[in-house]
Every structure is written in C-alpha cells, then in structure tokens.
Amino acid sequence: MIRGLVNKIIPFSSVDGPGNRTAIFLQGCNFNCIYCHNPETINICINCGICIEVCPSQCLHMENGIVRWDKGKCVGCDSCLKACKSCSSPKISHMTVEDVLKAIQNVRPFITGITISGGECMLQKEFVTELCEEAKKIGLTAFIDSNGSIPFYGDDRLITAIDMVMLDVKSFDKEEHKMLTGQDNEVVLKNMEYLAYISKLYEIRTVVVPDVLNNERNVDMASKRLAELDPSIKYKLIKYRPIGVRTDMIKSSMPTDDMMTKLKDIAVKNGCKDVVVI
Amino acid sequence: MDDILKIIKDTSLTYEQKVLALAKAAENSIKPLKIDEETQKYREAGVICDLNEGSAPYRPRYIVPDYEVFLKNGSKFLGLEPPRNIWEAVNSLLILYKHVPSITSFPVYLGNIDTILDRFIEDEEEAYQAIKLFLLHIDRTITDSFCHANIGPEDTKAGRLILKASRELNTSIPNLTLKYSKNTPDDLVLDSINTALITAKPSFANHEMFAGELGEDYAIASCYNGLPIGGGNFTLVRLNMGKLAPMAKDTEDFINNLLPDAVEKMAGYMDERIKFLMEESGYFESSFLVKEGLISADRFTSMFGMVGLADAVNHLLGAKELRDRFGHSKEANDLGVRIIEKLEEEVNKHHNPYCKFSDGKFLLHAQVGIDTDKNISPGCRIPIGEEPEIWDHLKHCALFHKYFPTGIGDIFRFDSTVKRNPQYVLDIMKGAMNLGVRYISFYTSDSDVVRITGYLVKRSDMEKLERGEQVLNGAAVLGLGAVKNQHVLDRKERKDD
C-alpha cells in the first residue's frame, strides 16, 4: 500500500482554503526558496542523528540506523529542527491513506474538506490522488496547495480527484524565479493557465519580498494574466515575514502596509476582483 | 440597617441601582417562606442556592411576553393603539419593556425582534434608523445584561438590519440569539458570525432541539434559557454538585443517597417559592400582562438548576492529573453522564401543580454560576484552564446538552484572524449542532464586548468599575466578579496550531 511522508497534520485550519479544513503537510520539496519559512519540510531525513543529541526530552533515538521519534514524549520545542543541517525533520510519519483518514475521523463533523500542502505535495502525486479520492467518498472537498512545478495537466485521475488548487506564482520572471527557488517557472505558468481553464484554480499567491524581488512587475504581470483568465479568481498577496527563514540566505524585511496597498491597487486596476493582502 | 445605609452611601451605584438594591433589602427583611431544617442546612452549605432571588417572591423570575399579541392589540392598560408603522412599533415596544419585570426588574426577553418588526418595514433606510435607535435606547435604559432578544430562524430584512446595527453600536445589551435551523440560509448565519466576531453576539441556538422540546413558540431569555413564549419561569434554584460531592462517602453514596435527597429538598424549596408567588403575592391576579393575554400562568414552568458537575466528578474520582479529569478521561465523562441521568430521573419524580406548561415537572437548567463562585465550574462545563482541543470540547458538550431544555451553553474564544474566514466558524458551528450541541457562543480575543458566563459585559465597563466609577450596566459588577473569581478572560484561545 502506498504511503505518504507526512510532516504534520493540522486538524483545524482557518488559513488553508475556504471554511474549516484539515491541513496535511507532506515532507519534501523540489524548490529551495531563499525565503522558505519552514525549511525543515524541504528534504528527507538522512538519519545522521544530530537531532538526537539536542533533544531535551529524549524523544528521539536511533534504531537500526534510523532516527525514531516518540510523539508522546515530544514537547514540541523544535530543537531538532534548529539543529538539522539537512533542512529536514525527524518527526515525519509514513502514513497510508487509511492512516490519514483515521486521523481525520475525530474532526470529521466540523470540517468541510482537506487541504494537502507541503513541502511540495505533488511530488507524492499518487498518494495525493488516492487521499483525495478517499476524502471525497466521505463528503469532504479536496484542495491542493502547490508550488506548481509538477504538471497538473495530463493526469485525468488526479484532476478528477481534486476540487481546487491554490497555486504559488512566486515570480513571473523566469530568471528571477530561478534565483528565488532554484527552478524556472515554465510549468508553474502552464499550470496556472490550465487550472484556470478547467475552473479548478482557487487562488494564486505571491509573496512580496522587498529588495529581493521585482514585486511590482510580478504583481502586475500575474494579475493581468489572472484577470484575463478569470477575474473572480482570488489573488493573495502575502507579506514576507522574517520568521523561521534561513537568515544567511536572505536579506529583506517585512513590506510596509503602504507598499502592499500599492500592489493591491495594481492588481485591482488590472481587473482582479478578489485581491487579498495578508 | 447597616446594609441599607451602606447601599445609600455607595458612590459606585447609580441612583437606579440603589433603588433596586434597597428594594431587594426590603424584600429580604421579611421571611414568609417555610423552610425546613434540612433544606436550610443545604442552603447554608451552599448546596442549594436561590441565586439571590429574594425571600418573598413577588414576580416570576423570567417573564416571556407574547409580543405578537401586544403588537396586534396594543394595550388598554398602557393606553396604546396597535402600531401602524416602524416608529410606532419600536416606540410601543420600548414603552412595554419598562413594564415587564423579572428577577432583575428588567425584562429578560424582548421578543423575536426581527419577525415582529419585519412587517413594518417599508423604506429600508428609515427602518434602519428606527432599529438602530431602538437598540441604542435598549442599551441605555434596560441597563442589565440579562435582557435578551432573538432573531431567526428565517431570514428577514429586519434581522439583517438588527445585525448591521449591532455591529455598529457594539453594545453589551441586549444579548442576542440567532435561532439556527437546518433551513436557516448560510448567508444569514455568516452575517451573524461576522457580527459575533466583532461584538460577541449573536449566539446560536439549536432550533430543532428547542422546538422539539418546548414547541415552536419558544424563546431564548436571560443568559441562554429556553422558555415558552406567553409564559416563562417561576423560579430558578440551583444544586451545587461541587459542594454536595464532598459530603458523600463515595460515588455510589453520592448517586444513590445524597443526590436524590438534595433533589427532593431543593424541589420542596422551589415548591414553597412558587406557592408564595402564586398564592400570596397576587402577581398573576393583578398584572396587566396577564389580563391582556401577553402571559398566562399555564405557560409557565420552573427551572431546576445545577452547577459544578466537573468539580463533583473530579472530586469523586480523586482525579488530579489532567488526563484523568472531567473533559479528558472517558471514565470521568461517563460518570458525568451517569450523574446527570440520575439527576433527570430524580427531578422527574417531582410534581408541582403550578408548572402546567411542563406537565407539573421542573425542567433542567445548567446554571452558569454567580459572580462570587470560586472553584465551581458552570453547569456541565469543563473548567477554564482545562479546556481540551475544540473538536473534543464540542463532542463533550454534545454529551450533556440534550438533558437541559431550559438552557445549557458553551463559549469559545477565537484568535481574531478568524475574521478573515467566517466560513471556518460556520463549519464548526454546524458540526456542533449536528452532534446535538444546543447552544454555542463565540467571540474574538480583541473584542471589547465579552461573554462572561452567558451574559455580555464590556471590558471597558469593568475597567471603569474597578476604578470605582459608576457604569450604567448593572451587570458589569457581576462580570468583574466573574473575571476575578472564575478567570473568564482566560478562556482558551482557539487558533490554528
């Protein structure tokens, strides 16, 4: 049976799509964004064991060369994540779809759906597809939160299984995107077009990063295209926040409210009807 | 007489508050009720408590007039013709409110104010002006947080205007409930949630549950009390389980001996209070509300209150660790249910000839506590500071809410970021109602109006009071007491984590 690498499950989330949703964060990402605020989700654990030494509650131990985590003993101090040199976490669960559904069972009456996020969840596309199919069978909606690097097009089973996608458009410029994430944005933009065309694009998001990105150009270009595709699709402008980031990789600061308002105005002027600043 | 002089000299009381306190002191200076020795012992131990209702009941505790009758007929006693437009309607209602007593001397029920006003709406802008002034007038003259208005379950223009005005006025009075049924449109519920996230009201009542038990003509009055329209509640006395449990040898002794005995004594005390009200006070023979058909004695019941279930359960089980305590362990929760089932069984054995609405029975009520309670948790609530995650908490609520037709409710405080996603609260609320939660309230951490235990008080009013300044709302002092003794501002903040 296929297993997913799950970083964590947040039973009630108010910020991962419409209504109350269980957010399932998968481990592993193919981007290495310089502003990543949860870098511990990027790589798979290499079982080096550094984290075991720093854990104050002795909830980690080595077993046959593999780092094991005792959830019951964990105090959630995240010392292990701070010590990790591989941008990973020892607190990953290998879960079957059934395991995830079981974890959701307790909150089922209060949620409207699930949102699978990451890392980059589309790296585990088969698991994602199966989980969405099963979630829908119990009346939940299935949303995907993606960096857009893996094609949604050409996979009918996946597309049937999911309801909506929340897509990062981190930069509209190919080179800038590469500088920011390590990869170009060709597939991202194709996904944006495709998902909007089939009415499965819930929102696109751009993080505004002063001094690092050409924010004005990105918002201008992305909002223009989005408005052409469907002006009612939500465009979320997210303030860069220097929390949890690798400070050796980025020198920036939180954008001012003024700056965000100006960017929002650009998107509205370009025809986007639902622009949100957070 | 020292007490009287103290009231007279108290500069933190407004003139009106002094008059009411003096009236209470006068009432308490006579003791016409016959109370047997054993009942008196329970009273002195705080096991049986009449919530300071007074020693000579001269009006029912809660009066729930049929405002439809009033608007249709006007009032001969008040010299009012039936209103013909929105201005006359709100004016007539405001006049009538001044003549609807209750235990606090202020009305505890103002009507299903959306449906009773909706028919008068011709011009929406004008109606909004009238409704906003109406609500402002209520806040400034019915200076008591136990005054409660209802809206829903249907969507009306008036209901929307009431919500809009409530958001703008941001007052603690009146308390407000949306009767929520499965047919209530989501859009109205979302409008209500958006309002609650700003001003801590409305709360949400499970219409199907209340209507199933009390009939369609029910009202939510005072804190969250389900009562028949055109009637009300004679008296509310409470049984403090937290104080009764330490008198028991063990769990079996509590359930089989002490609880039945305390129920019997308390029911007898309630009988005595009702008897005096009905046979001596002359209220029902003299009130124009009765004569004009706004209330009738056969639409009255009485509320058998209880508090401190968590404290009783934890004591009986000797539960010290959180995982063993009420709200966390299955054993503790099961014992809680067993106690409440036994309570219901014992209360149902009693017959009172005057409680005609409920076929002679008293109806259970989960009392929210009083300002002076210390280490006693309201009704069947999990104590503040021990709240589990919200999904487990709501399931726990559902275990108990079905036993309390005259009211039980739980309160949840959200991080203010949920304002961006009211649908989130809607999902939680609907899930809760589907599981059998009867009544639920929300507010956000940044709200000036806060829900104390069932009623609303402004933080800013409590701050004034603490500085020794007068405040208009007489319930602010109760709120301040509850903040100090029951830590109501420390309710667990619910946020994504």
Please specify the SSE layout and strand pairing.
The complex is a heterodimer of chains A (278) and B (497).
Chain A: E1 3-13, E2 21-26, H1 50-54, E3 60-63, E4 66-69, H2 79-83, E5 93-96, H3 97-105, E6 113-117, H4 125-137, E7 141-146, H5 156-161, E8 164-168, H6 174-181, H7 186-197, E9 201-208, H8 215-229, E10 234-239, H9 257-269, E11 275-277
Chain B: H1 2-9, H2 15-28, H3 37-44, E1 48-49, E2 62-64, H4 67-73, H5 86-97, E3 109-112, H6 113-118, H7 124-141, E4 148-151, H8 157-169, E5 175-180, H9 186-199, E6 203-206, H10 207-214, E7 218-221, E8 225-228, E9 231-240, H11 241-244, H12 251-279, H13 283-286, H14 288-291, E10 300-307, H15 309-317, H16 330-348, E11 363-366, H17 390-401, E12 410-414, H18 422-435, E13 439-444, E14 449-451, E15 456-458, H19 459-466, H20 476-486, E16 493-494
Parallel strand pairs in B: 3-4, 4-5, 5-6, 9-10, 10-11, 12-13, 12-16
Antiparallel strand pairs in B: 1-9, 2-9, 6-13, 7-8, 14-15
Helix pairs in contact in B: 1-2, 5-7, 7-8, 8-9, 9-18, 12-16, 15-16, 17-18, 19-20
Protein architecture, described:
The complex is a heterodimer of chains A (278) and B (497). Chain A has helices at residues 50-54, 79-83, 97-105, 125-137, 156-161, 174-181, 186-197, 215-229, 257-269, and strands spanning 3-13, 21-26, 60-63, 66-69, 93-96, 113-117, 141-146, 164-168, 201-208, 234-239, 275-277. In chain A, 31% of the residues lie in helices and 22% in strands. Chain A is an alpha/beta fold and 278 residues long. The longest helix of chain A has 15 residues, at 215-229. Chain B folds into 3 domains: 1-30, no CATH class; 31-60 and 226-372, no CATH class; 67-72 and 80-224 and 409-497, no CATH class. Chain B has 20 helices and 16 strands. Chain B has a 7-stranded mixed sheet. In chain B, strands 1, 2, 9, 10 and 11 form a 5-stranded mixed sheet that branches. In chain B, helix 7 (124-141) packs across helix 8 (157-169). Chain B is globular, with a radius of gyration of 22 Å. The A-B interface holds A 10-15, 18-20, 23, 106-107, 109-112, 276, 278 and B 389-392, 394, 417-418, 420-421, 423-428, 431-432, 434-435, 494-497. Chain B: This is Glycine radical enzyme, YjjI family. Chain B: It comes from Lutispora thermophila DSM 19022.
